[in-house]
């Protein structure tokens, strides 16, 4: 009886619409997608191969030195980086590490390039905020597995669709935190800068962004971490690296191999996390 | 004042290093389109995709070894099941030797069959069904009542063998209160190993060839209603246009065909700790006659 009230409409064919829409999108924009895929693929392969071409010892030393100075001349992170990277090298995962790092690096850079402007836009307009916020929620909560197949349709297999999937998942924190940071800049400061006759862009670059920098960096740090958490899923669509090792260990029930690759990801995560946190604060007193 | 300078220095150093490295790199063209310069096979690069099941790891590495020996530059990429099919259909990869038909990949095949070239089976006598340890006192699906807590331990949701197990639960009255627990191939194998270790009851969705039959004493349960279909074949699928672009590779893939005993020996070597590429290379070395059949008529 009661069901009759809500059974007024047949099942809405959302699944079919989505499939058709994806197909249309692929066909319509293949002239954009294909060049992106090809050139970007070459570019990313080039980045990871260049990284791989640098002798591991040199990378270890550079990272350790940077860690030393970034953390305000403390030894902790420097030693950890050195030992951690050596361990990854020792386990024969160096090439995978470089691939994973490339994926995370490119995804993060793109996320920031895309995310910060949107964050600024949101902070400047209530309407933009109202429109973008639900989109961000959608991007962060839609399970990544859902857009793996479209990602392959758009960008083939390999690193490029992996970056695409990472972007969807990892960009929102940068946008949110940029918005938040700028909105938290004190009204008095903004009014003062207006009183001195600064233009909109001066206000943004000289007052708001510098004041919001700490918050924005916290968002970027989150973005990098989320990009890193996508590496295993990205491997399902052919992205090489530590994620592929984890995935293949899972599918072959090899606890040991999976653990070793997992530890590699953890080491990389800790190094990247401390770096992005410390670049922002001027040698925090830990 | 001091530290930011170091940071800037570090960043500058890092950037310049990568630029130097960039200078040393060579520019590589993309290899996605097989350039069809006549039949010279100008592009000797071939990309095979596979799904990381033990059978496919073995067969893909073996055929890759054979293609390498014929002078091809082979890339093998492990992908998710559905993505593997999609990648061949959209010519992202050149082919795969991992199509389980008619059962396991049935749905994917009907989805993509118009966009692929079917080169026929490379292995016959594969099977899927419900598998139990030899010590369990049951021989047919119809005889199951409440063993193993009325649970069938399955693999990835969406795999054909899982779908078949789900229809078995519907078809057989005695399974009316059973459920199919999905997991992953690896998790299923682990659960099976644990149960055998403890001599517990377990019912899994099984398929052969698979190393589990080499490692444990197992048996297929009879399937009087034929829910799991007849024997499976593993087929080779390639992208459209491969024959024109790389006739040699196409021919080798077309002629690739071997027996369950062959694949199981490679699988067992891998299971016993050999590297997949090594195990494949060893098999190729030890079976020149088979390989010669696959490369027949290749100059």
Describe what this molecule looks like in 3D.
The complex is a heterodimer of chains A (286) and B (299). Chain A is an all-alpha fold and 286 residues long. Chain A is built from 13 helices and no strands. In chain A, helix 2 (14-53) crosses helix 7, helix 5 (94-124) packs antiparallel against helix 10 (200-229) and helix 7 crosses helix 8. Chain A is globular. The N and C termini of chain A lie far apart (66 Å). The longest helix of chain B has 23 residues, at 2-24. In chain B, the strands form two sheets. In chain B, strands 3, 4, 5, 6, 7, 8 and 9 form a seven-stranded mixed β-sheet that branches. In chain B, strands 1-2 form a two-stranded parallel ribbon. Chain B is built from twelve helices and nine strands. Chain B is of the alpha/beta class and 299 residues long.
The stretches of 5 or more residues of chain B where confidence is low (pLDDT under 50) are 17-40
Mean pLDDT over the full residue set of chain B: 82
Order of helices and strands of chain B: HEHEHEHEEHEHEHEEHHHHH
CATH homology-level superfamily of chain A: MetI-like
CATH superfamily of the largest domain in chain B: Periplasmic binding protein-like II
Order of helices and strands of chain A: HHHHHHHHHHHHH
CATH architectural group of chain A? Orthogonal Bundle
Class from secondary-structure proportions of chain A: mainly alpha
Q: Give the count of helical stretches of chain A.
A: 13
Transmembrane segments (chain A): 51-70, 77-94, 100-123, 144-170, 224-243, 255-272
Main location (chain A): membrane
Domain ABC transmembrane type-1 (chain A): 97-276
Membrane topology (chain A): Multi-pass membrane protein
What keyword list fits this structure?
heterodimer; A: 286 residues; mainly alpha; MetI-like fold; 13 helices; 83% helix; B: 299 residues; alpha/beta; D-Maltodextrin-Binding Protein, domain 2; 2 domains; seven-stranded mixed β-sheet; 12 helices; MetI-like (chain A); Glycine/betaine ABC transporter (chain A); amine transmembrane transporter activity (chain A)
């Amino acid at each position: 009886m009661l069901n009759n009230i809500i059974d007024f409409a047949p099942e809405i064919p959302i699944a079919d619409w989505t499939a058709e829409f994806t197909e249309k999108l692929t066909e319509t924009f293949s002239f954009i997608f294909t060049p992106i895929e090809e050139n970007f693929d070459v570019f990313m392969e080039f980045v990871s191969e260049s990284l791989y071409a640098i002798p591991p010892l040199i990378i270890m030393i550079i990272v350790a030195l940077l860690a030393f100075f970034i953390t305000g001349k403390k030894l902790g992170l420097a030693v950890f980086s050195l030992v951690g990277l050596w361990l990854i090298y020792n386990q024969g995962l160096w090439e995978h590490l470089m691939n994973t790092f490339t994926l995370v690096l490119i995804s993060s850079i793109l996320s920031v390039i895309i995310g910060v402007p949107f964050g600024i836009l949101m902070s400047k307009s209530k309407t933009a905020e109202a429109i973008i916020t639900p989109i961000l929620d959608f991007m962060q909560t839609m399970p990544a597995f859902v857009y793996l197949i479209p990602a392959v349709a758009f960008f083939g297999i390999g690193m490029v669709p992996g970056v695409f999937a990472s972007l969807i998942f990892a960009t929102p924190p940068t946008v949110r935190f940029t918005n938040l940071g700028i909105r938290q800049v004190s009204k008095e400061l903004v009014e003062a800068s207006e009183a001195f006759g600064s233009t909109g862009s001066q206000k943004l670059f000289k007052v708001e962004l510098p004041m919001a920098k700490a918050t924005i960096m916290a968002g970027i740090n989150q973005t990098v971490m989320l990009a890193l958490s996508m590496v295993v899923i990205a491997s399902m669509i052919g992205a090489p690296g530590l994620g592929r090792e984890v995935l293949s260990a899972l599918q072959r029930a090899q606890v040991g191999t999976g653990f070793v690759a997992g530890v590699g990801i953890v080491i990389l995560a800790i190094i990247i996390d401390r770096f992005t946190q410390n670049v922002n604060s001027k040698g925090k007193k830990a | 004042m001091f530290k930011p300078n170091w940071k800037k220095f570090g960043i500058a150093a890092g950037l310049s290093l990568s630029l130097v490295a960039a200078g040393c790199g060579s520019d590589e063209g993309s290899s996605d389109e097989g350039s069809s310069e006549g039949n010279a096979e100008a592009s000797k690069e071939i990309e095979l995709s596979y799904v990381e099941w033990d059978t496919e790891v073995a067969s893909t590495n073996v055929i890759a070894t054979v293609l390498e020996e014929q002078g091809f530059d082979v890339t093998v990429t492990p992908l998710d099941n559905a993505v593997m099919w999609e990648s061949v259909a959209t010519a992202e990869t050149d082919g795969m030797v991992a199509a389980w038909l008619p059962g396991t990949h049935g749905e994917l095949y009907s989805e993509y069959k118009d966009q692929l070239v079917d080169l026929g089976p490379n292995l016959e006598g594969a099977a899927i069904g419900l598998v139990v340890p030899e010590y369990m006192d049951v021989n047919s699906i119809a005889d199951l009542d409440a063993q193993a807590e009325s649970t069938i331990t399955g693999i990835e949701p969406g795999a054909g063998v899982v779908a078949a197990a789900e229809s078995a639960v519907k078809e057989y009255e005695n399974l009316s209160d059973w459920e199919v627990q999905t997991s992953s191939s690896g998790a299923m194998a682990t659960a099976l190993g644990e149960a055998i270790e403890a001599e517990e009851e377990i019912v899994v969705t099984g398929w052969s060839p698979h190393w589990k039959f080499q490692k444990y004493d197992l048996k297929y349960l009879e399937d009087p209603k034929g829910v799991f279909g007849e024997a499976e074949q593993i087929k080779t699928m390639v992208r459209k246009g491969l024959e024109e672009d790389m006739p040699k590779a196409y021919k080798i893939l077309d002629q690739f065909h071997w027996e369950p005993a062959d694949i199981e020996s490679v699988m067992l070597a891998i299971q016993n700790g050999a590297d997949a590429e090594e195990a494949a290379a060893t098999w190729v070395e030890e079976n020149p006659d088979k390989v010669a059949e696959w490369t027949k008529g290749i100059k």
